[in-house]
Task: structure prediction
Amino acid sequence: DHMGPADFAPGAGIDVRPHPHTGLATVTYLFEGEILHRDSLGTVQAIEPGDVNWMTAGRGIVHSERTAPELRRTGARLQGLQTWVALPKKNELADPAFSHHPKATLPRISAPGLELRVVAGSAFGKRSPPPVFTQTLFVGVEIDAGRAFELEAEHEERAVYALEGDVTVAGTPLPPQHMAVIAHREPVEVKALTRARLMLIGGEKTDGERLIWWNFVASSRALLEEAKLRWREQRFAHVPGDDEFIPLPEA
Result:
């Protein structure tokens, strides 16, 4: 999901009440603003621009995402991405976990008019600290008009998402808030027509089909139904200090 860009007036902000996840990892990466993360492990962590939160749901985790009280008083701007990563079958019932990685810990590749930051996984000879389970491509790019770079073919699946600005991918125009999925496993040129902000997304194919229902991801219908029942009966762990919750959708 691409959040924003959104401007919140004083007194307003985001309030994503406690809700569950299973069978996946969420990757939250901000460009502007701040989000206060709380989860059922007892984590309380603010994420700021350039930081990354990696949350492994495994057999089940609950979290909330809100605007901190001090920012709510003054108003704030928010923009970021939250990406879901399906866990391999052998890890989909793993213990839940959370890790926060400040901007300064993420590898950076710089050249005139071009900056790439490896947010998760590996790319361009660099490896990022979040605990990925399979080969992963998740790289933030800021690029000036007229500059270009080659996206190598080391990852099985690759895509380019344009947050801002106009670019071409292998000569094909890619407008803002669109994604280009690269079907062939060959290096491709990414070129900026205007100053642009991009994300490179991809990695290893999943080991079989995945089912998605609401916030649950699973390799079988039985695991999905079990997760739904556990949330309906409130058998997930609670988020300390945040007593609200989002009920299970009926549809």
Observations:
- The first helix runs from residue 69 to 74.
- The domain at 2-102+208-232 is CATH 2.60.120.10 (Jelly Rolls).
- The first strand starts at residue 2 and ends at 8.
